[in-house]
Amino acid sequence: MKRVLGYGLLGLPMLLLLGALLIPARLVVDQLERHLPNISVQAVDGTAIAGSAQELRWRSARLERLSWDWQPLALLHGWLEFKVDTGNSAVKLLGNVAMGWQRQWRFQDLVGRLSIAQAGALLGKTPPLDGTIEFRLGDLHLNAAGQPQAAHGVARLRQLRVLLDQPLDLGDFTLRLTPATPTGVQGAIQDSGGPLILTGVFNLLPDGRYHVAGQAAVRDPSNRALAQAMNRALGPPGDDGHWPLNFTSVLAL
Description:
Layout: H1 2-21, H2 25-35, E1 39-46, E2 50-58, E3 61-70, E4 79-85, E5 92-100, E6 105-115, H3 116-123, E7 129-142, E8 148-162, E9 168-179, E10 185-191, E11 196-204, E12 209-218, H4 224-234, E13 243-250
Antiparallel strand pairs: 1-2, 2-3, 3-4, 4-5, 5-6, 6-7, 7-8, 8-9, 9-10, 10-11, 11-12, 12-13
C-alpha cells in the first residue's frame, strides 16, 4: 500500500506537468486578452509552451506573427523563460524573455528593430520624433513596475528626425549601455556624423530617476533651421558654439 501511494505521489507531479505542457495556446491568449483589454489576436496555433499567434495587436502596434518556445532549464534558476521571434513583422524581435517569481523581467540575447512611432504605440505615447530603433542587448532586467534595473548592450537611432512645423533631420546616434554599481544603468551617447553633433553620458537609477550630461552642436553652420530650433529648445549656445546638456528627470513608463 505504501509503495502504491509512493508511486501515486511520484506520478501526480508528472501528470500535472504533462497537463501543463498540453494546454492549448488559445487558453493562454484568452487569459492575456482578459487582463490586457487593448490586445487582440486573430489566430493561435500550438500549445502554451510552443506556439504562435498571428495578427497580434496591442494599442496601435501590430505584429504579423509571434512565436514562442519554452526554455525549461531556466526554471532551475527561478525564471519562466521563452524564446520569442516575431519573424517578418514590422516590429522585429528575437531573443529570450523571462519572468521571475516576483514578477520581474529579464531579457537576454535580444535583438530587434522597430520605428519610433511603433515604440510610442507600445508605450501609449506619440513622440514628436521619426526614425528607427535598432538594438542588441545581452542583458536587460526590469522590476515588476517595468523600471530598468540593469542593462548591457547597444541601441542605435537611425535617421532621427524632429517632427515640428518643419521636420528637421538630426542623423544617427549610438547608445551604449552598461550596468552601474551597485544597481542601475549607465550609458554613453555618440552621434555618427549627421547634422547634430551629440556626445554625453547618462545614469539611470533603479527607481526611474536619470541624469544626462553632455553637449550638442550643429555640424553645418549654414543649417539655420536646426540652429534656430536648438536655440528655442536650449537657449543660446556657448562661445564655442556648443549647447551644454545637464538635466535630471524621471523615466515615464
